[in-house]
Amino acid sequence: MQTSPYSLYDKNYKSNLEHINSACNLTLPTAIPNLILSETPHIERDPYCATLLSYTTTAGDTYNSIAAQFKVSSAAVRAVNWPTIDCFAIPECTRLCIPFGCETYTLKDRDTCDSIEQELELKPWLRLSAIQEYNP
């Protein structure tokens, strides 16, 4: 790592370079320079949402309720908004990206992977491994 006002050279790199200087009988400079800061202020931008569809949460919203409303999986809602929100407590007025939709299946009591496969008449190539893969 080269030391410069534009690099990520820090105390760890400095320590390594001091060791190299000592071991190799060198006198390379090891001072950590002041970073040159951008004069352009940091501008907060909305996170990118591929669907361009967003939803602002209300009291009591959950991943499941939002997913059902938009006919998407709750796992997909979580995935496209991670790590923006806490999955156990979605604050009111939080703007969420709604993912691309797909056919969803709502679990019933006593459902198993086998019973779901039978009910949906899944093709052999879309069996247990796919159900588990897309539903973490």
TrEMBL record:
Q: Which InterPro entries match?
A: LysM (IPR018392), LysM_dom_sf (IPR036779)
LysM domain residues: 53-98
Query: Which Pfam family, just one, is annotated for this protein?
Result: LysM
Name this protein carries in UniProt: LysM domain-containing protein
Q: Which organism is it from?
A: Penicillium daleae
